[in-house]
Design brief:
The chain is of the alpha+beta class. The chain has 3 domains: 4-123, Rossmann fold; 134-150 and 223-358, ATP-grasp fold, B domain (D-amino Acid Aminotransferase, Chain A, domain 1), CATH 3.30.470; 154-221, 2-Layer Sandwich (Dna Ligase, domain 1). It is 34% helix and 26% strand. It contains 11 helices and 17 strands. The chain has helices at residues 17-30, 57-60, 111-119, 128-135, 137-146, 162-176, 200-213, 255-259, 275-291, 327-335, 339-358; strands spanning 4-11, 36-43, 49-51, 69-73, 81-86, 89-94, 97-100, 154-158, 181-185, 195-197, 216-221, 225-234, 239-240, 244-247, 266-268, 296-305, 311-317. The strands form 3 sheets. The chain has a 7-stranded mixed β-sheet. Strands 12, 13, 14, 15, 16 and 17 form a 6-stranded antiparallel β-sheet that branches. β1 (4-11), α1 (17-30) and β2 form a beta-alpha-beta unit. The longest helix is centred in the C-terminal third of the chain and has 20 residues, at 339-358. The mean pLDDT is 93.
Length: 363
């Protein structure tokens, strides 16, 4: 039996490029080489596509680009390949499934998923619509609210309004829920560009920082809370893992605490929760997954208020971090699904969903 050709897509043009390199290295190492032919496809920071067939350590350390071949995907629905050009020689690499490991905009937001749809090829994780909705924290919160799911109070602002409305925007936030609050780019992950704010001066700086990353800015009420996460896996009948808890080394679990604090942040898997809270978080995770139209995988992040005990959905990540220290695979390992089996399952879910779509009638 021929091996399945898996195009593993990494890098990208977002601020989470380096995180993608760490995630994809772990995934490739975990893939069963007897079942899969692995084609690592890298996107440089300036948006150039390449195929890299060298030592995967060079992906992790960021030197992969020097030994890669320029590559092009064709949206032709019959081709299902990526073409490399090197030394005046053209090579077609067959693709059976694409496993995108791209975090943030231009990767996790429905853009490349649209390309895969044109190619008519199975791909891991959510479709175009759910990817785009989950990437946009504002749209996802509006849908979760509509479905009766709990989210913290928030306000939305736009970059174009900042130059001439900063004082009134600050007053609106102060009159709504005040300090402390979080200021976030609406379409970024891994806590890039996020600031916890305690006063007006910091608020102004935080709004300007968020506007460096996005045209839309989300401001949320900050609550004294435990940070809980839950992994969801599946298509029509998604399942939730045991939840995990993050105890950050800093004021909140920001980019530095996630990836560069030398292990000072604590990851508790499973989270020390009551049975009632565990069941509620698992139920809310699956409900959020379904409400947002997710398939394949997602990590649902929660806030458990230390004062009221109420649980809020914070955000949903459709391509969560997959490094050796990332919560998504760690929560499944604790639930009984190994890292390598998780990768296998995601590939099979992609094939299953694609087969279901192929069986549909088209006008």
């Amino acid at each position: 039996m021929d091996k399945l050709a898996i195009g593993v897509l990494f890098g990208g043009q977002s601020g989470e490029h380096e995180i993608s390199l760490m995630s994809v290295t772990s995934i490739i190492r975990a893939m069963d080489k007897s079942k899969y032919e692995i084609i690592p496809i890298g996107i440089s920071k300036n948006g150039k596509w390449h195929v890299f067939m060298g030592d995967i350590q060079k992906i992790e350390d960021g030197t992969w680009l020097k030994e890669s071949a320029p590559a092009f995907l064709t949206p032709d629905a019959d081709s299902k390949c990526i073409i490399t050009f090197q030394n005046d020689h053209k090579t077609k690499h067959r693709l059976d499934v694409i496993f995108p490991v791209l975090h943030g905009p231009r990767g996790e937001d429905g853009t490349v998923q649209g390309l895969f749809e044109l190619m008519n090829i199975p791909y891991v994780s959510c479709n175009v619509a759910s990817s785009a909705i989950c990437m946009d924290k504002v749209f996802s919160k509006k849908i979760l609210e509509r479905e009766g799911l709990p989210v913290v109070e928030y306000r939305v602002f736009y970059k174009n309004d900042l130059p001439h409305r900063l004082p009134s925007i600050a007053s609106q936030i102060e009159n709504s829920f005040g300090y402390p609050c979080f200021v976030k780019p609406a379409n970024l992950g891994s806590s890039v560009g996020i600031t916890k704010v305690h006063d007006r001066e910091t608020l102004i700086s935080a709004l300007m920082l968020a506007a460096d990353y996005d045209l839309k800015i989300l401001v949320e009420q900050a609550i004294t809370a435990r940070e809980i996460e839950c992994s969801v896996l599946g298509n029509d009948e998604p399942q939730a893992s045991f939840p995990g808890e993050i105890i950050p080394s800093r004021e909140f679990y920001d980019y530095t605490a996630k990836y560069y604090d030398g292990g000072k942040s604590k990851l508790l898997v499973p989270a020390p929760l009551s049975d009632e809270n565990t069941r509620e978080i698992q139920d809310l995770a699956v409900r959020a997954f379904k409400a947002l139209g997710c398939t394949g995988m997602a990590r649902v992040d929660f806030l458990l208020c230390k004062v009221s005990g109420k649980i809020y959905i914070n955000e949903v990540n459709t391509i969560p971090g997959f490094t050796k220290i990332s919560m998504y695979p760690k929560m499944w390992e604790t639930t009984g699904l190994s890292y390598s089996k998780l990768v296998d399952t995601l590939i099979q879910l992609a094939i299953e969903r694609h087969s279901q779509k192929q069986a549909l009638k088209f006008c």
